[in-house]
Amino acid sequence: MTIPADAAARRAVKPVICYPVEALAQPDLATYAAFRAQAVKTGEVLVPPRDAATFTVPAGGFFRISSVDGPQVGDLNLWNADDLSERFYSGKTRALHGTHVTTGQRLWSSFPGMRPMATILADTLGWYGKDSFGGSVHDVIGTRCDPYTHNLLSGGQYHHCCHSNLTRALADATGLPLHIAEAHVHDVLNVFMCTGFTRDTGQYFMKASPVRPGDYLEFFAEIPLLGALSACPGGDCSSEHSSDQAMCHPLLVEVFETPADVLGDWVSPPPNGYDRSHGR
Prior knowledge:
Blueprint: H1 7-11, H2 29-38, E1 40-47, E2 52-57, E3 62-67, E4 74-80, E5 83-87, H3 90-97, E6 106-108, E7 116-123, E8 136-139, H4 147-154, H5 162-174, H6 178-184, E9 189-197, E10 204-207, E11 216-221, E12 225-231, E13 251-257, H7 260-263
Helix pairs in contact: 5-6
């Protein structure tokens, strides 16, 4: 390899943000907070360690994911409760908001809907910011631990990776066969997980999550949601995942409904306005 004479000048070119978000409609957090103050708890599910569970949230409601017994990360999938083809799009969420998300940012849905699915209303780990390793919390860069990569790297048949956990949970909730449910499982929001990219090799890394019992991440449901959360077999992801070696704990999901008279004339955001003609 020959280093060109202008290598330094090429490296020094300033970056340009791909998707400036100033034009995005901003969530009305004050209104959401007013809704939250009058929302009524309607249910909860305790997600077992190394397993997953589903939950539903009406549009205009809220859901909270909490650490209850010890440090634990979770992998979150979301779908439109009325149409599984509209699901959380982690890649576009990352492109719009960055590698990690927190209060005031949104989880966006897949094409062609591409609209806000949920808005983060509260994050008790918002203080963490970005550490000296480049790590931060609640990432949309990792995929989800899965049995295929596990088999590729380690051999064996491990069935409690988050991908398989989410597949079983969705199949149980919908009655779909496993192979059909699996096709709907998608890249996740890694709740409470502390991750980043190494500065030298650019590899995805994980480190011990700063989450402690009582910490939570809370969302406003912009559309009716079906959610699935896996309590990762990596526990706090301080050492490894996709095994039974890590200490693991449950995660609590609580659902809150906002009374119709409180919501008033609030409505879900419409699907994306692109006409889908694709130039034809």
